[in-house]
Amino acid sequence: MIRRPRLPAPGDFTAPSHSPLVAARLGLWLGVAFGLCFVTGLLSHYIQHPPGWFTWPTRPVNLYRITQGVHVLSGVAAIPLLLAKLWSVYPRLFARPPLRQLSRLLAHALERICVLVLVCAAFFELVTGLFNVAQSYPWGFFFPAAHYAVAWLAVGALLVHIAVKLPVAHPALTTRLSQADTAGVVAPGPDDRDMSARRAFLRTSAGVAGVAVLATAGVTVPWLRRVSPLAWRTGAGPQGMPINRTADAAGIVVPPDWRLAIVWPGGRHTLSLAELAALPQRTAELPIACVEGWSASARWTGVPIVDLLRRAGAPTSRPVRISSLETNGLYARSTLPATHAGDPLTLLALRINDEELSPDHGYPCRLIAPSRPGVLQTKWVARLEVLT
C-alpha cells in the first residue's frame, strides 16, 4: 500500500535552535538593533529635511557622527541576527491554518501577512542600506525617500508582530534555556544537550553580529580602523580626508574673478578670496560625518559664518542658505539653521590640516559646521543668503 506523502508540521522540527526560547531572545536582540537603526535614521532624516518643530544641537560636535555611526552599525548587526531569527522560526511556516474557525483563520491570515510585510521591509532596508554605504544604486527609485517610507512600514509591522507574539515571547524570555522543549512547553527535566545547543546557537549568532560590527566599525571609530577589514572608508584621500564627490564629477570651474556674495533682505556684500583670507581666522577640529556611516576628523581653518555676517552688516540670528558653484547636484544648496549659523565653530573654511583646500575638498571655500551631515557641508561655496 502506497502512503500519500505528508506535509511537514512544526513538531517535526526538533532542533534546539528552533526553540521558542531561542526565537524570543533573538527577537529581543533584533528588536533592539532595529529600534536603534530606526531612531537614529529618523534623526538623520529630520536633520536633512527638518519639520518646523525639529531642532538639532551643534554640541557636542561629534553628535551626528555618533548617531549616524550607530545607525549604520546597528543595521550591520541586524543582518546576521535577522537570518538567525528566520532560521529559528521557519518551521512555523508549516503550521496548518485553522480552517474550521473563521475568526481564528482570519487572525492567522492577518498574522502571516504582517510577518510577510515585516520580513520584506526588513530585507529591503538592510539590502538597500548596504548598497547605499557602497554608493551603488542599481535601481530606479530615490533611495532616501524609499528608505524612509519603508522604515515606517517595517516599524509598524514590527509593533503589530510584537503585540501578537507578546503572550508567547514574555514567558519564553523569562524561562531558562534549559527548561523548554521545541514546542514551547516547560519540561520537567532539562536536557543538557538541548541546553548546550541552544546556548551555542545564541552565542554564535551574537558572535557573528559582533564580528560584523567590529569588521566595519572602523569607518566611524578611528581607533578600530586597523582591525576593521571591511570598513568602506578610511582616513585615506586628498589631504588625508575621504571624499564622496570630486570637483571633476561635480563639473566645478572656479572663475578667475570669483567673489563670495553675502546677501540679505535689503543688503549685499562681496568678498574676494584674498579678502576672505585677510580676515581673522579660526581653527577647529571638526568631523565630516557622512550619511553612509563613515566619518573622519580634520583641522579646519576659516572665518566663522557669524563673523562674516556681522562684518557685512547682515542679520546674525536667522537661517542661512549656502549655495555652491555646483549647479546640478541634489545638494548644491543647503540651509544652515539659525543655531548653526550663529555657532562660532561653523566656519567658511579656506584650509584643511594647515593646507589650502584642494579642489576636491571645496576650493576656494567650503562650509564646515559641527554636528551636521557631510552631505550638507556644502563645498565650492559661492553665496550666503540670510533668510527671513
Q: Number of helical runs?
A: 9
How many DSSP-defined strands?
10
> Any idea how many domains?
2
Which architecture of the largest domain per CATH?
Answer: Up-down Bundle
N-to-C SSE string, H for helix and E for strand: HHHHHHEEHEEHEEHEEEE
Instruction: Name the strands of the widest sheet in spatial order.
Output: 2-1-10-5-6
Helix content: 40-55%
Mean pLDDT: 90
Organism: Micromonospora coriariae
Protein name: Sulfoxide reductase catalytic subunit YedY
Keywords: Membrane, Transmembrane, Transmembrane helix
Pfam families: Oxidored_molyb
Folded structure, characterized:
The chain has 388 residues and is α+β, with helices and mostly antiparallel strands. It has 2 domains: 10-227, Fumarate Reductase Cytochrome B subunit; 239-386, Oxidoreductase, molybdopterin-binding domain (Sulfite Oxidase, Chain A, domain 2). Helix content is 43%, strand content 14%. It is built from 9 helices and 10 strands. The chain has helices at 20-48, 63-89, 102-133, 143-173, 192-216, 247-250, 273-278, 305-312, 338-341, and strands spanning 259-264, 267-272, 282-289, 295-304, 320-324, 333-336, 347-352, 355-356, 366-368, 381-386. The chain has a 5-stranded mixed β-sheet with strand order 2-1-10-5-6. Strands 3, 4, 7, 8 and 9 form a 5-stranded antiparallel β-sheet that branches. Helix 1 packs antiparallel against helix 2, helix 1 (20-48) packs antiparallel against helix 4 (143-173) and helix 2 (63-89) packs antiparallel against helix 5 (192-216). Mean pLDDT is 90; it is low at 181-190. Keywords: Membrane, Transmembrane, Transmembrane helix. One of its GO terms (molecular function) is oxidoreductase activity.
